[in-house]
Amino acid sequence: MIMFYREWGSRDRPLMIFLHGGGAAGWMWDHQVQYFHDYHCIVPDLPKHGKSREEKEFSIISSAEKVIELINEKGKGKKIIIIGFSLGAQIALQILSEEPEFIHYAMINSALADPIPLGIQMLEPWVTLLFPLTRSRAFSRLQSKVLYIHDDDFEKYFHDTSQMEKETLLRILQENMSFVIPDTFKHATANILITVGEKENHWMKQSAKKISQSNPNCQGLMIGGVGHGFPLAKPALFHKMARDWIEGRGLL
C-alpha cells in the first residue's frame, strides 16, 4: 500500500515535509501548512497511522525509507526542508542519517534519542493495563490537553487513537523508546535546528543535548513554558522560528 499524504502550496517552491507524532496523523500540521502556503508542503500519514493505517508494519527505518521515496518523487531539483515532531522527529533523524546530503534544512522537535531500558521492559504489561483507556473519550480528552491538541482537532485525535490496535501501539512505543541516533547522523550536511520544551522530562532534554552534540550543523533551543507539543502549544512562535531558520534570519 502507498503511504497516504496530502499536498498543498506552490509546486515550484521549496519542498517542506511535515512528519507527525505517534498516535496522531497529518492533521496535526494543518496550521503549519496554512501558514507556509508559499512553500510546496507535503504531509504524510505515517505507516499504521491515520489513512495509512492499513500499512503492513511500523518501524522508524521503514517509515524513513517511505518518506525518502516520496521526497525523491516530489522534490527533484528543489531545496528540501523536513520538520518532525516526536516520533516524526526520530524518523527525520533517520532520514538525515541514511541520506546525509539529501536534506537542506531540518527542524527536529522533541525527539527521544536516549533509550529508557526499564521503560522498554515494562512496556508490554503497561500497554496491556492501559490500552482499554484508549477507547475512553474522557481519557483521550485528558491526553489531548497534555499534548496541546486544540478542541477543534479532538475528534480526529480520538478517532485515530481509538482505532489503533494494541499490537500497533506496543510496536510504536518500542520503536520510540529504543531509538538511538545512527552513527552516520554526524555526516548530515543540513542546517539542523533542535527544539525541546522547558517542561519536558529529563530524557527529552538529555536527548536534545545529545542530538545537538552529534552533528556540528546542529543548533539547539529550549522553548520556555512548553511541554511535549511545541508546534501545537505555540503555533505562532513555531511558525516564526521555522521561517526564520529556513530563510536565514536570526532566531529568538
Class by helix and strand content? alpha/beta
Low-confidence stretches: none
Which descriptor suits the 3D outline? globular
Strands ordered across the widest β-sheet: 1-3-2-4-5-6-7
Largest sheet data: 7 strands, mixed
Radius of gyration: 17 Å
Strand content: 15-25%
In terms of quaternary structure, the protein is: single chain
What is the average of the pLDDT values? 94
Measured distance between first and last alpha carbons = 42 Å
Number of strands: 7
Element pattern in H and E: EEHEHEHEHHHHEHEHH
By DSSP (H or I, 4+ residues per run), the number of helices equals 10
Helical content (DSSP H or I, runs of 4+) = 40-55%
Question: How do the helices and strands line up, and which of them pair or pack?
Answer:
Elements: E1 5-9, E2 15-19, H1 30-35, E3 40-44, H2 60-74, E4 80-85, H3 87-98, E5 105-109, H4 117-130, H5 137-146, H6 154-163, H7 166-178, E6 191-197, H8 202-213, E7 218-223, H9 230-233, H10 235-246
Parallel strand pairs: 2-3, 2-4, 4-5, 5-6, 6-7
Antiparallel strand pairs: 1-3
Could you explain the architecture of this structure?
By secondary structure, this protein is α/β, with parallel strands linked by helices. The chain contains ten helices and seven strands. Strands 1-3-2-4-5-6-7 form a seven-stranded mixed beta sheet, sandwiched between helices. The longest helix has 15 residues, at 60-74. The chain is globular and about 45 Å long.
